[in-house]
Specification:
Beta-Lactamase, Alpha-Beta Plaits, 37% helix, binds magnesium ion, 24 helices, binds ligand C2E, 31 strands, extended, eight-stranded mixed β-barrel, single chain, six-stranded antiparallel beta barrel, TIM Barrel, alpha+beta, 4 domains
């Protein structure tokens, strides 16, 4: 029977004496274990290597967690204990089972068992577990692996008061590459992106592909936001370098969101959520940027969520209204029509800007419902205007991909009894991000109905003139940002507007300059021969009844009215901060901020050379010395410069750990405190504290400038 079993090649028999010395082993296993060497008479356990503790748990099974010598010593029955041997330069893996043999008196007499070669099984299990931990395309760690690693690191570091940063990286325009050049090229591109990321970070173990075009990096013991910002900048620069994949040139970009434990989250989950909010902010601030998490991001995410909830039944509750802004012939000042602009009268928040809620509606499916209502309402209104006056309606890219759009448009026109050529649909360049064939079909269907099409916000988006050749636009609307910059500082914008107008004329399209507010802007756009103007200089958007009131007498011209010159937006800041001096905490207002210093106000008559610790909130403390002082204003210089926060703002390099803040007596809710105090100061309810008479005017006592300074020094170290 023994030899019959052995010939099946499933396993080999073996036996030992009471001392564990080998007394028999089938030929197959004998050769694998020892080759030509004599094997009988040697202790069985010595044929194997001491068990490797890192052995994968899934593979061990049974009582395999125990090492072979340990199991042997117990003299009990065992099953499938895994052991490893090395012979002829290769590794063998074995599953060993045995039954103790007893003599007539019940004494242990040795083992008799089976040994089976499980090398192959073992290898594929290893491969599987590698697969479970790695992204097969790039070979980087996968989401699961990275999640576990971050979890372990953050948990372990919390106890040791160490910090750990994580970055979420999202590629910009990857979808376009995938859609236009195909998935194999997209995959090859992702591999190169992975290589570039590993090169920047310098350690493959710290980079992971979360899936799709999203990557994550983990940076233990890094909390310096200056360094993190530099790293994010070089990641973005590296990823944005052109690629050549199988002869195709690809250009993509990247946005990066950054969060650091313990400041931005005490668990891995919280940290990743907050890095994700920062990534969202980076993308919304124009892509190709990095952003650090701040508490405000969470607040605005919460506001967004609340708005989305309220938006659901805003239409049913009659909170939406259309305003109309006249579009005026640039040469004659005659009103040729109006753009319909949606307004939301929120019961608690008052007017909510469409710039805020339209993107929210676009992220959910609400935009289609809102868009349909806008179309119907605008057509109804326009049907009451003098013949020849047009109405323009904004159509979001999300509506544009909806196959129902032509039917909805036709229906709105028919039920209002409006001629199709009196309706102009405003489309942004965003629609060209969709698949080309579908876009062209939609254009054809809409043109088939007979409506006009306008390209909105021209010059803000993807700045390719290519689609002007093929898309059947009747009008180009030049974005406000061009008009804004075209007088004064950015004379090149005027040349650009002139070029757009020339191009539009050649293609038989009209042009509208948006956002004209002042006479110098109006003169400039007239010089460039723009055909239409829309802006505050003629009229702000007005309620429907006001608009129709003006049209009552037929032809209607508006006399422009506005400032002579464009007012430059002043970049002065207005942010409430805290100022710690000795054992007082003062509310202060930040008037001006640069990397090396600030202009603050809130304390009267501070002598030069005084040292303050400024509290920008969220653990951002900086030591500052008064260099200039006049009345309630002080110019201060920082002893450590601030760093770029990636979004046009500044932040401190390091933050102070919560327990150090508490030790320095910095109030936990310092932001609310200073905001309340500043409001009271502004309302004249309290007076501004005088430096010479401390302790007056709503300061918090019990803070410690010395402890705060020490905390800045320690946490920066
Ligand atoms: P838009 O289509 O480019 O509309 C022009 C925006 O510029 C309007 O802002 C208008 O009030 C503003 N504006 C006009 N003249 C001036 C000016 O002289 N100076 C300045 N500073 N601004 C001027 P509004 O009404 O806040 O709308 C913002 C954006 O929201 C619109 O940009 C449009 O993209 C979107 N939107 C508005 N209504 C709708 C709608 O019914 N559907 C969709 N999908 N989007 C809409
Ligand atoms: Mg528009
Ligand atoms: Mg526009």
């Amino acid at each position: 029977m023994c030899s019959a079993f052995e010939s099946l090649n499933i396993g080999s028999f073996w036996s030992t004496d009471a001392d564990g010395v080998l007394t028999y082993i089938s030929p197959g296993a004998r050769e694998a274990l020892a080759g030509d060497e004599p094997i009988l008479g040697r202790p069985f356990c010595e044929l194997f290597q001491p068990s490797d503790v890192s052995e994968s748990h899934e593979f061990r099974g049974g009582n395999g967690q125990r090492t072979l010598p340990f199991t042997f010593a117990k003299r009990l029955r065992f099953e499938r204990v895994i052991a490893r041997s090395e012979n002829r330069d290769r590794l063998w893996w074995w599953a060993i089972s045995a039954e103790p043999q007893l003599d007539g008196q019940g004494r242990f007499n040795g083992f008799r068992g089976i040994i089976a070669d499980v090398t192959e099984e073992r290898q594929s299990a290893e491969e599987n577990s590698l697969l479970a931990m790695n992204d097969p395309l790039t070979g980087l760690a996968n989401r699961r692996h990275m999640g576990a690693l971050l979890d372990r690191t953050v948990t372990a570091y919390a106890a040791q008061k160490r910090s750990c940063a994580t970055m979420l990286i999202d590629l910009d325009r990857f979808k376009q590459v995938n859609d236009t050049l195909g998935h194999p090229i997209g995959d090859a591109l992702l591999k190169v992106v992975a290589e570039r990321l590993v090169k920047v970070i310098g350690d493959k173990e710290k980079v992971c592909r979360l899936g799709g075009d999203e990557f994550q990096v983990i940076l233990p013991d890094v909390d310096d936001r200056g360094r993190l910002g530099d790293l994010a900048t070089s990641i973005i620069a590296q990823v944005s370098e052109p690629y050549t994949i199988e002869g195709n040139r690809c250009l993509i970009g990247a946005s990066v969101g950054i969060a650091v434990s313990p400041y931005d989250g005490e668990t891995a989950q919280e940290l990743v959520r907050n890095a994700d909010l920062a990534l969202y902010a980076a993308k919304h601030n124009g892509r190709g940027r990095h952003a650090f998490y701040t508490g405000e991001l969470l607040e605005s995410a919460e506001q967004r969520r609340q708005l989305e909830e309220d938006l659901h039944d805003a239409l049913e509750k009659g909170q939406m209204e259309l305003f109309f802004q006249p579009v005026v012939n640039a040469a004659t000042n005659q009103v040729s029509g109006a753009e319909a602009l949606i307004r939301w009268n929120h019961p608690e928040k008052g007017h909510v800007s469409p710039a805020l809620f339209i993107p929210i509606a676009e992220e959910s499916s609400l935009i289609c419902k809102l868009g349909e209502w806008t179309l119907r309402t605008a057509c109804m209104e326009a049907a009451r205007w003098p013949a020849g006056m047009r109405v323009a309606v904004n159509v979001s890219p999300a509506q544009f991909v909806d196959e129902q759009l032509p039917r909805i448009v036709a229906h709105a026109l028919a039920s209002a009894g409006l001629e199709p050529e009196r309706l102009e649909l405003e489309i942004t360049e965003g629609v060209f991000l969709q698949e080309g064939a579908r876009t062209n079909q939609m254009f054809a269907a809409l043109k088939g109905i007979g409506v006009r099409l306008a390209l909105d916000d021209f010059g803000t988006g993807y700045s390719s003139l290519g689609y002007l050749k093929t898309a059947p636009f009747d009008k180009i609307k030049i974005d406000q940002s061009f008009v804004r910059g075209a007088t004064g500082l950015e004379p090149r914008n005027k040349a650009i507007i002139r070029a757009i107008v020339t191009l539009a004329e050649a293609l038989d399209m009209e042009t509208t300059a948006e956002g004209v507010e002042s006479f110098d802007q109006l003169d400039m756009v007239r010089e460039t021969r723009v055909s239409h103007v829309q802006g505050y200089i003629f009229s702000r958007p007005v309620p429907a009844r006001d608009f129709i009131g003006c049209t009552a007498n037929g032809a209607w011209t508006i006399t422009p009215n506005g400032p002579a010159k464009q007012r430059h937006e002043r970049m002065t800041m207005y942010r409430n901060i805290g100022a710690v001096h000795e054992d007082h905490y003062y509310p202060a207002v930040l008037r001006n901020l640069s990397a090396t210093g600030a202009l603050i106000e809130g304390i009267m008559d501070v002598p030069l050379g005084e040292k303050f610790v400024l509290d920008f909130g969220e653990g951002q403390l900086v030591v500052a010395i008064v260099k200039r002082s006049r009345g309630h204003q002080q110019g201060v210089e920082f002893d450590t410069p601030l760093v770029d926060d990636g979004n046009g703002g500044l932040c401190t390099r390091q933050r102070i750990l919560p327990h150090h803040l508490a030790a320095a007596g910095i109030p936990r809710n310092s932001k609310e405190f200073v905001t309340r105090q500043v409001a009271q100061l502004a309302a004249g309810k309290i007076s501004m504290p005088k430096f010479s008479v401390m302790n007056k005017g709503g300061t918090i006592t019990g803070t410690s400038s010395a402890a705060a300074t020490a905390a800045v020094a320690t946490d920066a170290a």
